[in-house]
Amino acid sequence: MNWYAKYLSIFEKPFSSVPRETVEEIRDKLNWMKSDEPLASVVVIAHNEETRLLSCLWSLSDMVCRYPVEIIGVNNNSSDKTEEVFKAVGITPYFEEKKSCGYARQRGLYNAKGKYYICIDSDTMYPPAYLETMIEQLEKPGIVGVSAFWSFIPDANHSKWGLKLYEFARDLYIRAIYIRRPERGVRGMVFAYVAEYGRKVGYRVELIRGEDGSMALGLKRYGEIRLITSRKARAVTASNTLDADGSLFNSFKVRVARAVRNFKFLFTKQTEPPKDEESNLIKKG
C-alpha cells in the first residue's frame, strides 16, 4: 500500500464531507508539532484548495521530524472554504490579496521565523520523513537550497505505469540539468532554502510560473542548490498539471521537444535571469 493511501480518502472531497474525527486528529497532531523557536518554517500556500488542502495538512501532521518546526498557512485570496480548512486544524493563515505563487510565498517568507523556509503546495502530499530529510541536507556546510523529486497520483486519465515511465524520463533529465543549471530543475512544491538568503533574493511576484526557479537562481550566489534523490523526500501531487497538453503521451512529447530545444542547458551555466515571456507575466489592473 502506498504511504499516501489514507490521505486519498479525503483528497478532492468537499470539506463538509470530511469526518470530524479526522479533522480533530490532524489538529491535535499539528498542535503538538508547533514550536516557538522553530529551526524551519513550513509554509503552506493555498488558492481555492478546499478539496485538497486537508490531505496535504494530514500528511504534514504525520511527519516524523527531530527538528523543531512551525507550520504557516497563506490564503492567497481564496473564494472557497480554504480559510475555514486552515482554521479548523488550528492554523490561522496569513491573507495575501494579490494572486500568484510569488506573492503567496513572499508573504510566508516575510512571516517565517525559522532559519530554513520549506515550500509546501496545498495540492501535494508529503512522506513521513520529508521535513527531516530536507532539513538534514540544509544543515550541511555550503548548502543554501535543496529540492526533491515528485510523483503524480494516477487517475482515470493517467495510468500508474504510464506515469512511472514519464517520471523516470523526467527524473533523468532533471539529474542531468542539475549539474549546470539546478534552478531549471527546481519545483516550488519540493523546494527549501536558507531564509536569510531568500529574503535577500526575494520572489518574482509578477510571474505566473517560475518564481521558484528565479529564487533558486538568486540563491546560487550564496552556495550550492542540492538535489535530493531519496524516496524519503519524494512527494505526490495531483496529475491535473499534465492536462494542459492533452494526453500523457502528448505531455511527454511536449517536454521532450522542450528538452531538445534547451539541450545547451546541460553544458552551460546561467547567471542572469532569462528574458520574460509576455504570456508569463501577471497583467496589472
From TrEMBL:
Keywords associated with the record: Transferase
Keyword Transcription attributed: no
GO MF term (any one): transferase activity
Entry keyword Transferase: yes
Residue ranges occupied by any Glycosyltransferase 2-like domain in the UniProt entry: 41-172
EC numbers for this chain: 2.-.-.-
Protein family per UniProt: Belongs to the glycosyltransferase 2 family. WaaE/KdtX subfamily.
Protein name (Swiss-Prot/TrEMBL): Glycosyltransferase
